[in-house]
Specification:
This protein has 387 residues and is mainly alpha-helical. It contains 14 helices and eight strands. It folds into three domains: 57 residues, no CATH class; 98 residues, DNA polymerase, domain 1, CATH 1.10.150.130; 150 residues, Intergrase catalytic core (hpI Integrase, Chain A).
Length: 387
Amino acid sequence: MGSMSPIDGKPRHRSRHWRLYVFLGRDENGKKLQKSKRVRGTLTEAKKELVKFENECLGITSKDCPFADYAKNYLERHRPLWKYSTYQNRKAVVDTFIKIFGKSITLSQMRPHIIEKKMNALLVEGPSGNPCKPSYVASLYSHLSSIFNDAVKDGILTRNPVSQCKRPSGKTEERKAPSPDELRSLIAEMDPASKYEMSVLLQASLGIRRGESLALRWQDIDFENRVIHIRHNLQMNCALSSPKTEDGVRDLPMPPFLVAPLELRKAIVERDIRRSVKGGLLKKEPDFADVFVVCDEMGRPVGPGAQSSWWVNHRARFGMSEYTEHDIRHGYLTALAHLGIHPKVAQKLAGHSSPLLTLQIYQHADMEERIRAVDKYANIMTEIQEE
């Protein structure tokens, strides 16, 4: 709220010098926070300046509008710049914001204390009824800040209220990766005749992402040179896009144990397509080079959503109930780390933009590895002392 007082010692109706005050709340110690400024003019002019000053301090302009409408407009304006999967992710985030803050609240009403209150409530109970992880809430803050940054650029707000919010640390809990023995057992159990199991087999054998395994076509499999070309990623709408990063385009050596399953899978897909043509499901045989490795009886790709649903419903059969499909990738790269593979080589195999990312995210050193490292260090120190 704002207030004003004359500073020239004259009655209010005769004063021409004023000090304006805007109350901004209290800090953590209960100290009053406010801004002030001097203006010159009549009482009426001073009142108008007070309104302007209050709006300026609170980040309000005359272009104020409902947050929900602006967030949806933000989505559509940025849609051409995003991949389909990114757009779908951002759309889900905006829908979450509308559930949290409601449809009627305006941009100017999104004050820092209101934002903090609503976002902190997610740590106790999220939209689904379960507490949200601090890392998820921290990511929501980042998305919300992007929306408000646009509002500032558009002249609707004079400052980003999220910049004044205290965010949760967002520290992600270290995930447990499958051990080499668990991966070995998983690979042995996968049946190439099953389209879903073929995807898991590719992920576990090559350390590739789910979307990359689903995007593989037979033109990407070079049996002669034993190379698998990673060129695409399959999006949620089953459209092919470029991999997650520029370094995601890569050539991977084909492990010897993967040759036979791929040859068997190829024979099965060829047989199924011939049957589909014979049964009238297909008018003619497609160019086999364009057919997906992970496909149904008619050569159509398996969507990422269907693949993930299958994994969640069946992973317990393979002793992997505590792991996601992405954890399989973690396990592959962790195994490389345990074998002493140089991080730069692991980076190239993973398709990461930096070896630092490979080290920070994917190398899970378990207690056994830590003990082995300490023992090696102790042996060296013992040798030095004996000398």
